[in-house]
Amino acid sequence: MRFFKKSLLKYSTISTSRKISQAVPDIRIYEVGPRDGLQNESKFVPTDIKVELIHKLSEAGIKDIECASFVSPKWVKQMSDGTEVMKTIKRVPGVNYPVLIPNLKGYEAAKQCNIEEIAIFPAGSEGFSQKNLNCSIEEGLKRFKLVADQAIKDGMRVRGYVSCVVGCPYDGPINPKGIAKITEELFTMGCYEVSLGDTIGVGTAGSVKKLMNEVIKVATPDKIALHFHDTYGQGLSNLLAGLEFLIQQPTLIPNVRMFMNGKLRTIRML
């Protein structure tokens, strides 16, 4: 019986993998390490190290590298050197270097750095919106619309994020219908793509499927990206669930646990 179960599991995994490989011809990685991966580090990462990281990512073949955030240094000191980073990096033809923008003030600062693409980031829950943006979801969307309008007028590409799409540290589980509504509003603003982020890593394959069933009612799958954290070991299974909906641009920030020299170590991967 044990062998039979293992055989079924192996067959099911191979079958699913074949379906996905046939259905999704291309996966595009949108790298957020230099921004999302570093912004919560307690010790300030020197500008030259950030620049070196971005260069190594482009050398590795990554075509989309989110480099900086133009938020207030008061709130995110780690990102206070965004202008220096963007003016120092050596840009490779064919590589996209977007930045995160919280408001018009941040946009005006970023615009001086020869940017071509920005990302705006409303929250998927009222609690997280108040804690992260100091405003309601509705107020945040109005703020970001002003940014998007100006950026599009200036010829910029605009990408949207929605955070806490399945769970919030303040509000708990999130209704997928609400995320679909925010996603639709971002597309109405002119976003070419919307990334759905499991900010605190509580998603499961089941909750991702419920989310996608609602989101694809307002957007085609090729316009949606998924961003997962592997906080509870569900990142890859969530990615698999997303791929079944033909998501073409996943991002994953895992906490990889592995044995080295007989000792368990945790490695943070950006």
Any overview of this molecule?
The structure is a single chain. The chain has 270 residues and is α/β, with parallel strands linked by helices. It has helices spanning 2-23, 33-37, 47-59, 82-88, 104-111, 126-133, 137-153, 176-189, 205-215, 235-243, and strands at residues 30-31, 64-65, 68-69, 99-100, 117-120, 157-162, 167-168, 172-173, 193-197, 224-229, 249-253, 255-260, 263-268. The strands form four sheets. It has a seven-stranded parallel beta sheet. Helix 3 (47-59) packs across helix 4 (82-88), helix 7 (137-153) runs parallel beside helix 8 (176-189) and helix 8 (176-189) crosses helix 9 (205-215). It is globular. Mean pLDDT is 86; it is low at 1-14 and 254-270.
Low-confidence stretches: 1-14, 254-270
Category from helices, strands and their pairing? alpha/beta
Based on CA atoms alone, the radius of gyration comes out at 19 Å
Largest sheet: 7 strands, parallel
**Helix share of residues?**
40-55%
Strand tally is 13
Question: Quick check: average pLDDT?
Answer: 86
Q: What spatial order of strands do you see in the largest sheet? A: 3-4-5-6-9-10-11
The SSE order reads: HEHHEEHEHEHHEEEHEHEHEEE
Shape descriptor reads globular
Report how far the terminal alpha carbons are from each other.
41 Å
Strand fraction band?
Answer: 15-25%
Number of helices: 10
